[in-house]
Amino acid sequence: MSRARTTRNRLTVAVAVALAVTTGVLAAPATAATGAVTAPSAVAPKAVLFPADSAETAGPTGFLSRQEDGAVWTRYADGATTAFPGGDGVTHRGSAESDVVVVSKGTRHTVHDMARGGEPVVIDSPYELREVNGSTLVMVDTTTKELHLVGRTTPDGEVVDRKVTGLPAGAVPWTFYGTSPGTLGLQVSSATDGFGFAVVDVATAAVTEWYELGQYSRFGQVTPDRVLWEDGLGRTRIVDRATKQGRTLPYRARAVLGGDWLAVTDAKTVDGVTYPNSPVVLVSPEGDRKVPLLDLAGDVAPTGDGTFLVTGGTFAQGTGVFRVALDASGTPAATMIGGGRVPLEMVLEKANVPDTYRFDGTDPRVTWQTNHPDLGVSLELTHVATGRKVSLWSYYDTSIGWDGYLDQVIGAYNGAYTWKMSARPAHGVGPAAVATGTTTVRRGTGAARDFNDNTGADALVRDGSGNLLAYDLDQLNAMKDRDCHEEGCKPVVRDPAPDLLGTGWNTYTLMASPGNVAGSAAHDVVGRDRDGVLWLHRGEGQKLLPRTKVGGGWQIYDKLVGGSDLNGDGRGDLLATDTSGVLWFYASTGDAEAPFKARTKIGGGWGAYNLLTAPGNIAGAPGGDLVARDGNGVLWLYLGKGDGTFTARREVGGGWQKYSHVIPGGVDAKGVAGLYAVGPSGSALYHGTNSTTRPFEPASTLPLRSDSTRFKTFF
Fold this sequence. Notes:
The chain is mostly beta strands. It has 2 helices and 61 strands.
């Protein structure tokens, strides 16, 4: 099967599985079938490594490397290279342990003998090329599934097409294994015999050996003395070809260095020694010596002279091509012969994180560039002021987008962030590459009741210890009774985490959040103490400033209500009911020194209500609306006229006595407000409909419950 070109050099991490075997040597002349072949480059000095970073197949005199735009043959003797251009439909294939390179396009296959040179041999065949053995093309008739050996003795000779004999009837070729010229190993399957390993003598085109596999095997190898295959359990079966005696090794391995030393790269423990899945370890024929050679190993390419090439790397030398041979003491040793330009460790060469996020649809996605393919890239952003984080993953994409949420449910706060990008190497060796930096979120200000500076509405809660806390409504609304398992849905929040706005709030007997009454963009809070003094806490970002005194005499009121603009001046206002049941309107001034105008009377009879809330526009009236609950649990709607007064009440419905607090529930994309109701038995979100006849959608129930400790007072 043809080998697809890749855009980046990905080092395979399983030597026993990646069995590309190579050949080649001298320069080859141009061929009309594949385009001009570049002449060998100038002879490279001996001290300079070959430019190749990989070896796909190798022979006694040179090796073949894959490139984005084709393939290159490199000669050992002097580093001379021959380039084989790529192109649409062009494939390149080397022959194991020989110096033959085949360039194919369509049915035309050009065979180059890189050792001898001379005119290439052109073979035109309708079959599908699966493997090259020496100068013989191993091909399959895709119609009949029959195996053919096709060759030509001279450039002008006749094409010799021989059908392989001795395979079981109906056998289908599955996998071909690069072996030394003259012998072919392949895995086949048949309805009667299952999976089997066939050894074919190329000279006679006949099957000479057959081994039952029992199941599909991901690896096979034929040496002059042995047959090896993977048994499906991560083990290697080795059978002596002469005696048929076999043994099973508890790891994946292939025979190298004369067929005796075994190259092991799978993560297995052998005699108490654990071999990771990337470094290559050579195991002696007796199994008593284990020699680690490289920190990373990829394709193994036997050369035919008792040595082999391996694509891999070390942290000291970088990545490239290594020749493995026995030294004078008989110990395997690896010498780098090509590459060395790219470090083995993962490096984040570029980390492109926006300097500013606005979440308005114009933010660019995060991109990066690494020296090796990555197994996944993570980006962690931390809000400097609060320490809240968001972790994003690439999931093998080439970029990362941020949807503007922290913890997936809370809108990201305005302000400074630090970021940390981590790229895990796809080859699995060494630590992740890390880059850090800073960015800023500038998403503007919210429409109402935003106390954590993320433009989203919050619920203010005073707990039993007197702490004032801001709970993002998105976070509370994510408290579901059951998990969502659909792709892309928000996670369920089991334990909402608030932002602390202040302590000591038990000093207040009444509290309200009227909006931006003091003229700033942030939203403010007022509280009445036990002496009847009203205090203003101005909002600033994610905090409340020290309080300032508004004035005394507020002990006459038993309810304070804030939450919306009632007179259309763009600022929040305050409502208060006195103990005689009269409702009073305090318009805001935008002046922190005197935040409210003199009160104006709205009317009496409001003592019938035990709960008031001013959520904003619910039903489409010009101004902010008001809802009130009577002693029977019936909720009434008062539409705002836009001048601080209201229309006659309209009944919403009964059953609201189960709630201890009803507060503004935020504003949707259409500017319609809702209600958030919470009680000891649970809570619910009521979305506004912008309709006077049916002002709310059916309740969306949530499990949050009011209590006397954590969730004591909502407003």
